[in-house]
Predict the 3D structure of the following.
Amino acid sequence: VDWADRILVNTIRLYHVIEEILDLNKKIIWWIHEVNGFEDIEDRLFDSINKRKGIFVYAVSPLVMKKLLQRTGADFKAEKLEFGLENYKVEAKENRQKIIFALIGTIVRHKGQDIFIRAVERLPQSCKDTAEFWIVGRGQLAAEDLERVDSCIKITGEIDIRKMPELYHRIDVVVCCSREEPMSVVVVEGCMNGKLVIVSDAAGIADYITDRSDGLLFRSEDVKQLAELMEWAIMHREQVRQIGNAAKGVYEKNFTLEIFERNLLELMGKENA
């Protein structure tokens, strides 16, 4: 890093890099994306960062900021920096009889695929007959979750990232069941593509969504409430389209590549605090 004037360190896991370069008198930007891992860092590093000029700490969402300040104390100097996504437009989905819900992400407990499956289980058969529920992502479901999988649930496995536009063309609703998540790229992509998003209030992206206006929010792990929202979406297709169209504003206001570029250039140009 000797040749660099500015150094961007990405993610909490590279805190040891911060320790190694603090004394170089370079401008350092530390961009944190996680809600865990803070316990591995000693107080002295946070204290050193807070006392020095020329080092700036950014959190990717209000949830990450909250977790950071819980660990460091409220007087720790940090700001928010959301990511940006390049816009790609998918064609409007042709009218089909079945509405398709998708939970997209690696199959792990904190993503809540089990919550999704149990919510589908609660739906009346009339709803299951007119909908499909896709679990998209690499990994294996636990045996007890597989036993609950209904015929209306489709497990696709991992999808090549280059085929994501095709996926968003085919689905109607993006569901985020995460028990805790710093920020959800797939929900932002869903908003960008004008899909209804149903989001757990434990996900960082929930702070950007106005319930019943540009998305639907439910209490984390509340299977009954999630099932009720799914049933409502199945029964109210026109409102699904309307809220999905409104969701585009969440992307356009916060997550475009142009907004990210502007914010990044601005912080790169900051002088020592």
User: Anything to note?
Assistant: The mean pLDDT is 94. The two ends are 21 Å apart (CA to CA). The longest strand covers residues 27-32. DSSP finds eleven helices and ten strands in the chain.
